[in-house]
Amino acid sequence: MQKHQHEVIIVGAGGAGLMAALYASEGGADVAVVSKLYPTRSHTGAAQGGIGAALGNMDEDKPIYHAYDTIKGGDYLTDQAAAKVLAENAIDAVIELERYGLPFDRTPEMRISQRRFGGHTRNFGEELVHRACHAADRTGHMILQTLYQQCIKKQVNFFDEFQVVDLIVNDGVTCGVVAVELSTGEFHIFHGKAVLFATGGWGRCWSVTSNAHSLTGDGAAIALRRGVPMQDMEFFQFHPTGIYRMGILITEGVRGEGGVLLNDQGERFMNRYAPSVKDLASRDVVSRAIYDEVKSGRGIKGKNYVHLDIRPETVNKYFEEDGSDTRIDAQYVESKLPDILDFCRTYLGIDPVKEPMPVQPTAHYAMGGIPTNVDAEVLIDESGTVLPGLFAAGETACVSVHGANRLGTNSLVDLVVFGRRGGMKMGEYVKGVDWAPLPENAGEEVEAEFKRIRDSKGKTKAYELRAAMQQTMMDNVGVYRTEETMLQAVEDLKELRQRYYNDITIDDDGYKFNTDLMEAWELGCMLQLAEITAQSALRRTESRGAHSRDDYPDRDDENWMVHTLAYGSEDQQSSDYRLTADKPVDLSLWEEEKRDGVAPDKQKFKPKARVY
Ligand SMILES: Cc1cc2nc3c(=O)[nH]c(=O)nc-3n(C[C@H](O)[C@H](O)[C@H](O)COP(=O)(O)OP(=O)(O)OC[C@H]3O[C@@H](n4cnc5c(N)ncnc54)[C@H](O)[C@@H]3O)c2cc1C
Questions:
Q1: Which range marks the domain in which residue 319 is found?
Q2: 510, 394, 330: which is closest to 44 by C-alpha?
Q3: Lowest CB count within 10 Å: 60, 76, 422, 429, which one?
C-alpha cells in the first residue's frame, strides 16, 4: 500500500471540508483533502436558496433572533449554546465569503441581498424577516467555487477521486485513513495527526431524494464501525418541494419569493395548517400538510403531489390578499430563480412562469450524525468525551444546531461556521501532539472486506438490494411513521443485510474505476445507517420535528427531551445496535433567562407547544 503523510487529513471537499482545509492551512498545518469526487462536484454546489445570517440588510435582524428560530425550528432538541455560536459566527462567515470574492446578489444600495425563508423571523417569531443571503439560486455553487479557489491559493494538497474506506485509530488516538484510488483500485494509507470527516449526508437511503448519487453516508458509517456513536439518527428531513417522482429539489426560495402551494381544488392549503407563516412554515410542517392533503384525496388529480405556483399573476394575487405591497413580474422570477426554471423546462417540459410545478416531499437532510462539540471535535459518549485527533463538520456531523428539524439556509451556515472552527482547532491541535504510530496491520481489515465483495459469487446484485432498501425506507420511515411501519422496515433491512453479507455478486472484476465494486461497498454503509435510523425512530415514542408518528402524535418533553446515541457492535455484520437516550439537551439560553428573572410566561427559549 502506498503511504502519504500530512498533519491534517480532511475527508470530503464540500463546503465544510474546504472551509476546514482553508483554516487549518492558515493555522500553519500541512493539509491534505481526500475526496471521492472532484471538489467542485460536491453536493454543496447544488444548494440553491441561500445562507442565513442576521445581517439586517433589508429589515431589522439580530443573531439572537436567528438563534431563537434555529431552536424553535429544531423543536427544542437544538443545543442552545451551539445555536448561539452558529447565529453569531454566521455574520462574520458571510462577510468573509464576500471578501473572498463570492458574487452575492445585491440590494440597490449594493449591500448583500437577502430573501425570506421558512421559519426565519424577527423579534422571536413576530414576523418573517429577510435573512437568506443568496447568489440567485446558485448560492452553494458560488460558495464551493470561492472556497476551492482560496484553497488552491493556499496550496492545500488535493487527492481527488480517492475514496476513503476506513479510519485508523491506534490505542485510542486517531492516526489516519485508508483510501482507494478510484482510477487504479489501489489502496493508500494517509497517515495524519488529525482527521476531519466532511463527507455529507445519506439521502440515498430513500427512493425519492434531493441528494446526489454520491451521498451514501460513508464517513458516518466508517466512524460508526470504529466505535463512534451516531446521534439523533431518527431525525431525517423531508423537504416539501421535490419535483414529483424525481425528487430534484425546488428551493424554498421559490416560496420565499412569494410562491404558493395549491391543492387539486386550487386552494392555498397552508392557510389552514399555519395561518400566520403559511407557505413559509418550517419544512416538517409543510411536508406533513402536503401528505395530509394527498391522503384526504386533494392531491392533484387524486395523485401523490400538489402544485407549487410562482406564476406572477398567482403570486401577486396572494401578496394583495396578505396585505403586502410587493409585486413581481416574469423578469423578476427569471432573474431570481434561473436554475429552477431551467430544471423544470429541461426535466418536466414545464415553464414555471406559465404553469405550476408538480411537487412532493423528498428526502433531503440528515439532522443526526457524528456527535461533535462546537469546535468540531468528535464525541464518543453522552458526557462529551473527545476521541483525540478526530473531527467532523457539515452534514455528516451533529453539533447539534439543527435539533429535530433544520431550518432552510442553516446548513450552509453550519458548513462555514463549524468547518472554520474545526479547521482552526485542528491547526492548534497538530502543533501540540507527536505523530501517533500507525498500527502494523493498518488497512488490512478493509482490504479483506473488499476482497469478500469481489469474490462473493451469490445471486443478488447490489443495486437490487439498494432499490429494496430505498423503497422500505420511503414507505416505512418517511414523513409519517408508526410502530407497525417501522417494525416492517427493521425486519426488511435485517433481511437485506443478510443477503448483502451472504448472497451478493458484482459484475465488474476490473480495477480501474470499478464503480460496481465501490457502489456495493457504499451499500454496506447505507444499510447500516438505514437500520440505525429505523431502530432509533422506533424507539422514540413521541413526535418531534421531522420525526412524526401517527401513533404518538404529541411531543413528550418529560421523557424525550434528550439526544439519542446509537453504537454499532464490534461485528460489522451484526444489527445489534446499542441505543441510549441519556445525552442531555443544552438549554443554557433558557437557563440564562430564568437566572435573569424573565417572567416565566415571557421565557423565549423555553420549549413551547407546537403551534404554527
Ligand atoms: C439540492 C439541494 C439544495 C440545497 N439547498 C440548500 C440551501 O439553499 N441552503 C442550505 O443551507 N442548505 C442547502 N442544502 C443542504 C446543503 O447543501 C448540504 O447539507 C451541504 O452542502 C453539505 O455539505 P458538506 O460539506 O457537509 O458535504 P457535501 O457538499 O455533500 O460534500 C461531501 C464531500 O465528501 C466527499 N466524500 C463522501 N464520501 C467520501 C469518501 N468515502 N471518501 C472521500 N470523500 C468522500 C465527497 O467527494 C464530497 O466532496 C441543499 C441540499 C441539496 C441536496
A1: 240-362
A2: 394
A3: 60
Based on the domain organization, do 348 and 463 belong to the same domain? no
Report whether residue 228 contacts ligand 1, using a CB cutoff of 6 Å.
no
Domain assignment of residue 468, yes or no: yes
pLDDT above 90 for 574: no
* pLDDT over threshold 90, residue 168: yes
CA distance 503 to 601: 60
Nearest by Cα to 492 from 523, 453, 531, 537 = 531
Q: Is residue 318 part of a domain?
A: yes
Are β-strands 370-371 and 397-398 bridged in parallel, bridged antiparallel, or unpaired? Answer: parallel
Contact 322, 228 (CB under 8 A): no
Residue 507 has pLDDT above 50, yes or no: yes
Q: Which of 27-41, 117-131, 332-346 has the highest mean pLDDT?
A: 27-41
Q: What is the rounded CA–CA span in Å between residue 420 and residue 410? A: 15
Q: Give the integer Cα–Cα distance in Å for 197 and 417.
A: 15
Percent of the chain with pLDDT over 90: 94
Atom from ligand 1 closest to the CA of residue 200: 27
268: domain CATH number is: 3.90.700.10
Confidence of residue 366 (pLDDT cuts 50, 70, 90): very high
In testing the pocket of ligand 1, which one of 33, 40, 42, 515 has its CB within 8 Å of the most ligand atoms? 42
- For 274, residues 6+ apart whose C-beta sits below 8 A from its C-beta are 281, 285, 286, 289, 612
Number of domains in the chain: 2
- How many A from CA of 173 to the centre of ligand 1? 27
> How far are the Cα atoms of 180, 190, 560 from residue 169, in angstroms, in the given order?
18, 12, 33
Beta bridge partners of 130: 116
Among residues 177, 173, 170, 168, the alpha carbon closest in space to that of 17 is found at 177
10 Å CB burial of residue 171 (0-12, 13-18, 19+) is exposed
Q: Do residues 257 and 350 both lie within one domain?
A: yes
Does a structural domain hold residue 98? Answer: no
What pairs with residue 569 in β-bridges?
none
For residue 558, give the CATH number of its domain. 1.20.58.100
pLDDT at 612 over 60: no
Q: In a 10 Å sphere around its CB, with 0-12 CB exposed, 13-18 middle and 19+ buried, how is residue 292 labelled?
A: middle
Among 312, 338, 362, the domain boundary falls at: 362
Instruction: Give catalytic residues, as residue numbers.
Output: 283
Mean pLDDT of the chain: 96
Task: Render pLDDT for 444-486 as a digit per residue (tens, 0 to 9).
Answer: 999 999 999 999 999 999 999 999 999 999 999 999 999 999 9
Tell whether 451 is covered by a domain. yes
- Out of 362, 392, 422, a domain closes at 362
Mean pLDDT of 18-28: 97
Q: Whose CA is nearest to atom 49 of ligand 1?
A: 13
- What does the pLDDT average to over 96-108? 96
